[in-house]
Design a protein that fits this description.
This protein has 86 residues and is α+β, with helices and mostly antiparallel strands. It has a single domain, classed as YlxR-like (Hypothetical Cytosolic Protein, Chain: A). The chain has three helices and five strands, in the order βββββααα. A three-stranded antiparallel sheet has the order 4-3-5. A two-stranded antiparallel ribbon has the order 1-2. Helix 1 runs antiparallel to helix 3. It is globular, with a radius of gyration of 13 Å.
Length: 86
Amino acid sequence: MKVKKIPMRTCVVTKEKCEKKDLIRVVRTPEGEICIDETGKKNGKGAYLKLDNEVIEKAKKNNALARALGVEIPDSIYEELKNLIK
């Protein structure tokens, strides 16, 4: 029987490799808007974060998400991420 491959992605804050389902993707669309991609399939440049309040706070504090996507991240995105964890 064939073993199914599990997609692995790297968190932009912790640099830890995790299964794709354990991370949340934030996308910069071709139009330049920032959104949270819960499906993991939206078009655009994506960056992954672990679903953890500490990781989201670190991403906001040291601009890891902004550096990964190349644009400023509005505070509303961080608030949405925190709400997804709850």
